[in-house]
Amino acid sequence: MTSSVKKLKAEISALNSLFPRDHSRVRVVSSGYDEVVIHFLDGKKTFSVTCTGLEGYLEGYPVWYSESEDSSITSALEHVADSTKKTVSGTMHVLLSAICKNRQVPALPELANLEELAARSEDGSSSASAMAAEAGAQAAQSCSAMSTGSFPSFGDDEDMDIDMELDDDDTDDPGLDSFAPVPDRNDAATGVDSGCDMDAGDRAVLEKVKKTAMSEYATGKPAVGGSIRASDRLMKELKEMFRSESVKNNIISVSLVSDNLYDWRVCLYQFDPDSKIHRDLNKHAKKTKTTACIELNITFTEQFPVSPPFVRVVKPVIEGGFVMSGGAICMELLTSEGWSAAYTLENVILQVMATMAKGNARISSEKSAQASYSLHRAQSSFRMVTETHAKKGWYTPPKKEG
User: Please, where are the H alpha helices in 145-185?
Assistant: First the structure.
């Protein structure tokens, strides 16, 4: 475990001690090495704020965002974006100080602890264990004088423990075999043409879309919201996708929403066997006796491939893995700054899968399997994060980290 990861683990452990789930005003409700979610309580109102961008801890800047449009929150987030703090505790100190001031409520007693924790995290003057222990002791003293509110139980599911889960000796869940097999799409029931290198159903989709594209070429009038250049590239991408090993081996599947070439439904079936999301899909498949997958929605504009597609998770609800609370995915590759017209969509999808696995994505145990994200929430959270990264820049990991 690298020193920066150890510092991050110790810092978040300390934050959990300072702001436990029964704190009367601020609660760390979810934490991992790529994302921290806090709730700020003010009377009957609860504001959820998320910190992400921790993959390059102390090299880049943590990014805070919220779906709330309350001016006290949005103004506080602007203060954080303008700060030069590089630690979670440092940016959290700026955030909470501003929220308290904006909402005209008493300052939190723990702000002094946060400031000290930030200083120690940045200069490394205190050991990880001492840092967490001191914060816990100080939090106990501060909280003893406060009245505590109630908070719904997260249950006893081991997957919901607030734990960084960064140790190399992480134990696999017992009793889980390899991923439940996906029904073979290339059998007699699907009507595969033996003379073609793709599923007959996929070939029928291509033929239908091709007719529409030919009509566009003939009339010079592209589909609504599209362009001839974008349609031509998307036709090629879809054809290559249907022929790809990723589709043939049931790693992913691709279909069009309402036969719209600019609106793709992508299902992710097989992640890295050693990843947590792979084990979660195993559990879901065995529990429901169905084929489990992570469903993505990928939409394109008339500027494609010059402009990147918008990629979001539709369902199930995911925790961690660089998937934001609205379902958008925090990846520089999916922004205008990180995108290249040379990227193939198959590689983009596989990179999204690798990022989710590396980021320890988990299927939320608090949401039903049918719970899904909305397009509006995804667009809103993605916009806020990209705007912040545009100011602060993106962290590029060393080559040895992949």
Answer: none
Handedness of CA 348, 350, 351, 352 (dihedral sign): positive
Q: Is 267 designated active site?
A: no
DSSP bridge partners of 67: none
State both tokens at 186.
């290339």
C-alpha 96/C-alpha 26 separation (Å) is 9
H or E element at residue 223: none
Tokens describing residue 77 = 């987030």
Identify whether the C-beta of residue 347 lies closer than 8 Å to the C-beta of residue 324: no
Burial label, 219 (beta-carbon count in 10 A; 0-12, 13-18, 19+): exposed
Crossing angle of helices 228-243/345-358, nearest 10°? 70
Q: Which of 100, 143, 293, 330 is catalytic?
A: 330
Highest mean pLDDT among 85-99, 206-220, 221-235: 85-99
For the record, the structure tokens of 53 come out as 């961008």
Residues 374-384 have pLDDT tens digits of 888 888 888 87
User: Who's near 56: CB < 8 A, 6+ residues apart?
Assistant: 395, 396, 397
How many CB atoms within 10 Å of residue 102?
16
From CA 34, how far away is CA 353, in angstroms rounded? 15
Q: Which residues contact 170 (CB under 8 A, 6 or more apart)?
A: none
What is the DSSP annotation of 271-282?
Answer: --TTSHHHHHHH
pLDDT tens digits, residue range 76-99?
988 888 888 888 899 999 999 999
Number of other CB atoms surrounding residue 23 within 10 Å: 22
Core vs surface per residue 284-313: b (16+ CB within 10 A) or e: bbeeeeebbbbbbbbbbebebbeebbbbbb
Distance CA 22, CA 366 (A): 18
- Global confidence as pTM: 0.59
> What whole-number distance in Å separates Cα of residue 84 and Cα of residue 90?
9
What element of type H or E holds 27?
strand 26-31
